[in-house]
Design a protein that fits this description.
It is built from eleven helices and six strands. It has 288 residues and is α+β, with helices and mostly antiparallel strands. The protein is flat and about 70 Å long.
Length: 288
């Protein structure tokens, strides 16, 4: 039986001498010439065409590995999550101490950084389900009535208003060509960045550059985390999985509430192979 990628008239052309050769159907595509069977020649595969207008080509990042984001232009990014402090409840002397510590932290930096404040809607459904389960295990009738009122209040509040959560991040960049190379992008206007003429191709990075970038990123992360600790802000660098969740939640704000990313460490097998041979039916084994 001929392979699926060959036409019937091609299979007839490679049959025994004297066999009839079927003519191609009018209007059907003509297949390229195939090498004779047994000649050892392998036809070259057809090139795969990529869609230049796909969503993946519009992303500015290329890969996430080793707790680092590799951008499409060959630069690197590290993201540090920060815990907020209540500045309004501090005394005047404590506020001055925080402000001066923050000024000293900014003056000690020798590289640029970006502060990101992200607001995300919270799905209150799991919290309500947990309260209902606790209420079922409660024997005190008074506590049951109070919990019913509280559950109804939280449910009503979640329907009337959007319960938001704020997250604070510090983005630490590294430019292999030097910080001066970024001045060209900073000099572009707003519309020049919004509507670029052409998207820069993905730059190939050698091993030496990548190892140097990892070392430099770790040094910068340590400098930022220690500086924020002097201000009173606790911070930690996001790992590879947390970076993937951050980008997933950012690009899919509505879908992330209904379909959050699962824990891939709980998966026991990545794929299943078909067993070799035929399975023996249970009724046949019993008959024997």
């Amino acid at each position: 039986m001929p392979p699926n990628n060959q036409f019937p008239f091609q299979a007839a052309a490679t049959s025994a001498p004297g066999a009839p050769v079927a003519a191609p159907i009018p209007g059907s595509p003509v297949a390229p010439a195939q090498a004779p069977i047994g000649s050892g020649a392998v036809p070259a595969p057809a090139p795969v065409k990529k869609n230049p207008h796909s969503t993946q080509n519009s992303l500015l990042l290329s890969e996430i590995r080793d707790n680092i984001v590799i951008m499409a232009d060959g630069t690197f990014r590290a993201v540090v999550a920060c815990q907020s402090i209540n500045f309004d409840l501090m005394s005047s002397r404590e506020r001055e101490g925080v402000e001066f510590s923050y000024q000293d932290f900014l003056n000690s930096l020798t590289f640029p950084m970006q502060i990101l404040i992200r607001s995300q809607r919270i799905d209150i459904g799991p919290y309500i389900d947990r309260l209902i389960e606790i209420r079922r295990q409660q024997d005190n009738m008074l506590l049951n009535v109070l919990m019913d009122d509280y559950i109804n209040y939280v449910d009503y509040l979640s329907q009337e208003a959007n319960i938001m959560d704020k997250s604070f991040f510090v983005v630490i960049p590294y430019f292999p060509l030097g910080e001066e190379a970024n001045l060209i992008d900073q000099g572009k206007g707003f519309f020049g960045k919004l509507f670029p003429k052409s998207k820069s191709p993905i730059t190939k990075i050698d091993t030496a550059t990548y190892e140097k970038a990892k070392t430099e990123i770790q040094n910068r992360v340590g400098l930022v985390t220690s500086g924020l600790f002097q201000v009173g802000v606790k911070s930690v660098q996001l790992n590879t999985k947390e970076l993937g969740e951050l980008y997933y939640n950012t690009y899919n704000p509505d879908t992330a509430l209904r379909e959050p990313l699962g824990n891939f460490e709980d998966v026991t097998a990545t794929y299943v192979n078909k067993g070799v041979g035929d399975a023996i039916a249970a009724e046949l084994g019993a008959a024997k």
